[in-house]
Each structure stands twice: as structure tokens, then as C-alpha cells.
Design a protein that fits this description.
The protein is of the alpha+beta class. Helices cover 16% and strands 38% of the residues. The protein is globular.
């Protein structure tokens, strides 16, 4: 009888674990980058607490035919950031460490993934 009760309790606990919704993970902090504005002046944009494991195409530079890529990224989040030269996390990539990772004007990017 004890075995059946323990088995039923374990099955119930497993069911609860499987059915509980999981919260979306986010990198805490800011990811900053510079892009060229419409008037030709440098503009700074920030992603605040971006979702993890999700590709973020930078809206200001999403169209390679209409804009120059962003540059000078600053990763001030608590996760690693892989920056990509093309939209949709494609092209060449480079990883920036958490909290203090940065790149110069030579590091071009159009999308980023936090992991």
C-alpha cells in the first residue's frame, strides 16, 4: 500500500512540474551600440533586459541595403552576447563577455544573441 501511495505522489509531482509554465529568461542589464542616424550623426541605442536565447535584429540597421551596420557594442548584461554581421543572427560572429564586453568601431553588427 505504501508503494502505491508513494508512486501516486511522485506521479502527481511530475505532472505539476511538467505543466507549470516557465518564465522567459532575460539577460539583465543593458546592451548598447552605435549606429549612423538619418542625418549622418552617430546615435546610441540600448536594449534593456533583452530576452535570452532569442535573436535580436537591431531595428536601426536591419536592412543591409538601406543602412550601415552598427558598431562599438557594449555588453553590460549578465550574459554573454554573440554579435552577428548580418540580420537574423547570420554571418560572421564575435562573443562579448558579460558585464564588461565591448568592441570598437571596427566591430560591425546587425543582430545579437544572448546566452
Amino acid at each position: 500500500m505504501r508503494f502505491r501511495t508513494a508512486l501516486a505522489a511522485a506521479a502527481g509531482a511530475l505532472t505539476l512540474i511538467v505543466t507549470l509554465p516557465t518564465s522567459a529568461a532575460a539577460a539583465e542589464g543593458e546592451f548598447q551600440y552605435t549606429y549612423v542616424g538619418v542625418d549622418g550623426s552617430p546615435q546610441i541605442a540600448v536594449l534593456n533586459d533583452p530576452d535570452s536565447e532569442e535573436c535580436h535584429t537591431l531595428p536601426e540597421v536591419a536592412d543591409p541595403g538601406a543602412s550601415s551596420p552598427a558598431h562599438s557594442p557594449r555588453n553590460r548584461t549578465d550574459e554573454r552576447a554573440r554579435v552577428f554581421t548580418e540580420p537574423d543572427c547570420t554571418g560572421d560572429s564575435f562573443v562579448l563577455r558579460p558585464h564588461t564586453g565591448y568592441g570598437s568601431e571596427r566591430l560591425k553588427l546587425r543582430s545579437v544573441l544572448f546566452f
